[in-house]
Amino acid sequence: MSEIADQVNDIHREVATRSVEGDEARVVLLHRAYDAHPADVWAACTDPARIGRWFLPVSGDLRPGGHYRLEGNAGGRILRCEPPRLLRVSWLFGENPGFSEVELRLTPAGNGGTALRLEHVAVVPVEMWKGFGPGAVGVGWDLTLLGLGLHLLGGEIADPTAWQATDEARVFMTRSSEAWGEAHRASGASPEAVAEAVRGTIAFYIPPPAADTDAG
After folding, report:
1. Exposure pattern of 184-200 as b/e (b: 16+ CB <10 Å)?
2. Which of 78, 127, 132, 150 is deepest in the core (most CB within 10 A)?
3. 45-67 pLDDT, tens digit each
4. Which ranges carry the Activator of Hsp90 ATPase homologue 1/2-like C-terminal domain (predicted)?
5. Domain that holds residue 20
6. Any idea what the CATH number is for the domain that residue 147 is in?
7. Quick check: is 213 in a domain?
């Protein structure tokens, strides 16, 4: 199997709940180590020119208290920024989003490397959590950390949209969905709930081929 697909195993995943403003919020937590200095990882995650190379183009008032927008994705406010170790932002979709925040922490690791910790805390509608569980955002974050890792090694996926239709990407996203299912189970979810969420996540990220409507 390709090295890219195997990188799904480089991430440690956890799932939890937390009370936020009286509501039950869901927490997904990812840990991954990179063979790059914290200053380089920090720059990759905060320099707009570099973010656009491995993630998405970003625009806005990119300073504490300012607002940002990722092209075709989330936007929000920059809540904390403490170079080169801590970044926290609100992570919002749509016109009336609920509570959702992402925090990135970097710490030095052995041999000049970096330990990355990413936490996404959000109040999630009950039916959405039932249908997808943590994989709804977890697979997306796995893909994001994959892209960051390739960038730090001096490479990128030239066309991410085209890549996601490849067998390599399908393997990665399937494994990612299953890994989030394991983290969901470890958090106390029932086997039935885990199975339903994994099925929903795989179907979302890897939709089955459209039915052939040509009766010919």
Report:
1. bbebebeeebbebbbeb
2. 132
3. 999 999 999 999 999 999 999 99
4. 35-143
5. 3-205
6. 3.30.530.20
7. no
